[in-house]
Design goal:
The protein is mostly helical and 290 residues long. It is 75% helix and 0% strand. The chain has a domain at 83-187 and 237-281. The chain has helices at 10-34, 54-60, 63-71, 73-78, 84-104, 107-110, 113-124, 130-140, 143-152, 159-177, 181-212, 220-274, 284-289. The longest helix is centred in the last third of the chain and has 55 residues, at 220-274.
Length: 290
Amino acid sequence: MAIPAFSPPRFLFMALTLAGLTLVLSASATLGQDRLPANGFEVPTASAPVVVTDADAVAAVPRSSLSDHSRRLLPVLMGGGPLMIPIAVCSFILVVFVFERFISLRKGRVIPGPFTKRFIEQLREKELDQSSAVVLCDRDGSPAAKVFKAGIERWGRPAIEVEQAILDAGERASNGLRKYLRLINGIATVCPLLGLLGTVLGMIQAFDSIASVGPGVADPKALIATGISQALLTTAAGMTVAIPALISYLFFSSRVDKHVMEIDALGMKIVNLVSAETGIGKPRSSKKAA
């Protein structure tokens, strides 16, 4: 008897997503209390303008803070801005559904070998009638068994009618196997756009900070470099999530196509065994009565 396909409860996904959001937001709040000023330099509060050279600008940045940020990945990522939060949520969702698809698309769950081989062999040897075959398909519950059941329910009908029932059931099984693949593809499409939007917003913020600083207060080159480095974090994060998502989508799509082709081939065997033209599909009891 096959194990039912893995389908995590919806409330579990919501709870895990909320937990991840809470962790990210709390880390963001903690980082906001200790991070450097927006322009990356300590600006004196004195009324008289002070000229800051390159050496003074570098010395103004606390080295302990830089070393801490280089050792901690989360504060560095959160430096990319608020759009890092949806990218992090997308990465969390991607991990959950990729794990779910790995379990659900195993061949043993989709096309259980012992069941399919034994079922077709029993039909060929006329050891099953229509009712017992339907019971076996319901007991197994795999996508292949559901396709077999659709053909068995047309037991003794013309081959074209049995084949059409097999094709319709195969289409439904294919749609079930492709569940969540569109979500994974959506993550692969949306994450680079989120990263690009974060970069554009970061660049706008960097140039606004430069425009708001008076002449001679800080080196514009250092300000631009700091702003660009922070803005590009969202693009890097978006690509980091999108590339595995796209690879996962292509991998699972290929696996689904392979399963569908194999189910179709097995379904054609069922058509040949239970259709009226072959005569094999008639139950043994009816043959003895004849």
